[in-house]
Design brief:
- With about 475 residues, the protein is mainly alpha-helical.
- It has 19 helices and 10 strands.
- The chain is about 45% helix and about 5% strand.
- The strands form 5 sheets. A two-stranded antiparallel sheet has the order 1-2. A two-stranded antiparallel ribbon has the order 3-6.
- Helix 15 packs parallel to helix 16.
- About 50% of the residues are buried.
């Protein structure tokens, strides 16, 4: 029997669901016994990993705060809602006037570390389970390591170097484990840790076609190669981007861009990593908490809170005839694909269509899925890497694949710099409201100009990284320091 201790900053604000939750849902400083015999079965082992997937259904992981720090903060979205409703901190995030005590940055930090804790619990437990089918156990280790890598990738993109918590601490907590939990590592060290987890995941995971039934919703070898390519992209390891993109096989662009955001388009040929929302009227754990309703039309005739609204700049960025515009933006006075009218009396001119649920449009728990990795991104990552290596003529056909699906003509550009700009624009329009825009602006050096065009002041040397939460620094007590820029 093993006592598991989880530090306060790791566990703050958890929302647990899944069949392993009895062993995971504890108070921040509670020490709990876990008997491997209670979960020593295929079902028990799978439950630990299901609990990791379910972390993405949490309000703090994927909903209000996450929309703020990854979307409202950008030139693609405004706070929305009514002028007098700040949404807690959405107004100051929209204006880039946030600080280290802004709640959405703390909730994002805590939620990802809570998910990492779930991964570590699973990885700690699996070697003790001798009645689990060996091939299943191998796969589950791969899934846990993929998702731990994904969460660390979110953290390092947002905050820079962070603590690498790679195992559970004992009771009482040792000085070494305290240092582990409270000392920031460099961004390079975090990236190396992510790459190691993904390399392990690639070895352990099956290809997508090997999954049957409900398991098709789980991550595969292709998921790990795609995420590794994206990690390479952020480090400008261009040849590695190409090599890993080429290993993402068994996927294809779907014919209709809009269909993949509807219920019938879930987990289609383009889906590489997608979180499943089942939906419900009152039961947590079956959908992303308030994800749909918080972004739905507000005001007279509306049914939601109205936050995270598309900007006019985003709407104007689409070329004439680009089908992605009407699949991304709900316009006031329009009729939705299922016949639902959006009255001309709602508060905001535009809303996020990708968050819409036909069945649970005004319910707390939505059946809307989060699409975190799609094959379209593999195509554009490879195009970007080829272009950066001077192989522009090979990049252009890949850009045109994306444009063709969008029902617009081939790119007219041929020079390396023009194709670079074209790729950046295609990324913006292809993945709008899929939580990549802020990180793309920062990594490509576009942030200052893009924010200025949207009426915001991006301070170079400060806003590239989010503030480290004050609550963590207080607990670290000198072991970690704040990011630069006067937070």
């Amino acid at each position: 029997m093993k006592n598991i201790y989880i530090s306060m900053f790791v566990l703050s604000g958890l929302l647990f669901a899944g069949c392993a939750d009895d062993f995971l849902d504890v108070n921040p400083t509670e020490s709990i016994p876990v008997d491997p015999a209670l979960v020593n079965s295929d079902e028990g082992a799978t439950g630990f990993v299901t609990a990791i997937y379910n972390q993405f259904l949490g309000w703090e992981m994927s909903s209000f705060g996450w929309n703020a720090v990854s979307s409202i903060i950008t030139d693609d979205a405004d706070k929305g809602s009514d002028p007098g409703d700040a949404g807690g901190d959405k107004d100051i995030i929209d204006a880039l006037t946030y600080n280290a005590s802004t709640p959405s940055f703390e909730s994002t930090w805590n939620a990802n570390y809570a998910g990492i804790n779930r991964c570590n619990q699973a990885l700690e437990m699996f070697p003790k389970l001798d009645k689990v089918t060996p091939a299943l156990k191998t796969r589950l280790v791969g899934e846990a390591k993929f998702m731990r890598a994904f969460m660390y990738f979110t953290l390092v993109k947002g905050y820079g170097g962070v603590p690498i918590v790679d195992h559970l601490s004992g009771v009482p907590i040792s000085e070494a484990d305290k240092q582990m939990q409270l000392t920031r590592k460099s961004a390079a060290e975090v990236y190396a840790f992510i790459e190691k987890d993904l390399t392990d995941a690639i070895e352990n995971l099956p290809v997508k076609s090997a999954y049957v039934g409900n398991d098709k919703k789980r991550v595969s070898k292709g998921s790990a190669y795609a995420l590794l390519a994206k990690v390479n992209l952020y480090q400008k390891n261009w040849q590695k981007v190409i090599d890993n993109c080429d290993k993402v096989t068994g996927y294809a662009l779907v014919a209709d861009y809009a269909d993949q955001y509807k219920k019938e388009g879930e987990f289609g040929d383009e889906s590489i990593f997608e979180i499943d929302g089942i939906g419900g009227t009152s039961t947590p754990g079956f959908g992303i908490g308030n994800y749909t309703v918080s972004q739905a039309p507000r005001g007279a005739g509306g049914w939601g809170w109205g936050f995270n609204t598309p900007t006019q700049g985003l709407a104007d960025a689409y070329e004439a005839g680009d089908v992605r515009r009407d699949a991304t933006i709900i316009f006031r006075g329009s009729v939705l694909y299922d016949g639902t009218p959006v009255p001309s009396t709602v508060a905001n001119a535009m809303y996020n269509y990708k968050a819409y649920s036909s069945k649970f449009y005004n319910q707390e728990f939505t059946d809307t899925n989060l699409r975190y990795l799609r094959y379209a991104e593999v195509i554009l990552m490879k195009a970007e890497a080829l272009n950066e290596l001077g192989q522009t003529s090979e990049a252009i056909p890949l850009v045109n694949l994306i444009r063709s699906r969008a029902k617009i003509g081939n790119t007219p550009f041929t020079s390396q710099d023009d194709i670079r700009k074209a790729i950046y624009k295609e990324r913006r329009l292809e993945f709008a409201f899929e939580h990549d825009r802020w990180f793309d602006l920062v990594r490509t050096g576009q942030a200052q100009a893009a924010m200025a065009a949207d009426g915001k002041t991006f301070i170079v040397g400060k806003h590239e990284l989010w503030p480290i939460p004050t609550s963590f620094l207080r607990e670290a007590n000198g072991l970690s320091q704040q990011n630069p820029g006067g937070y």
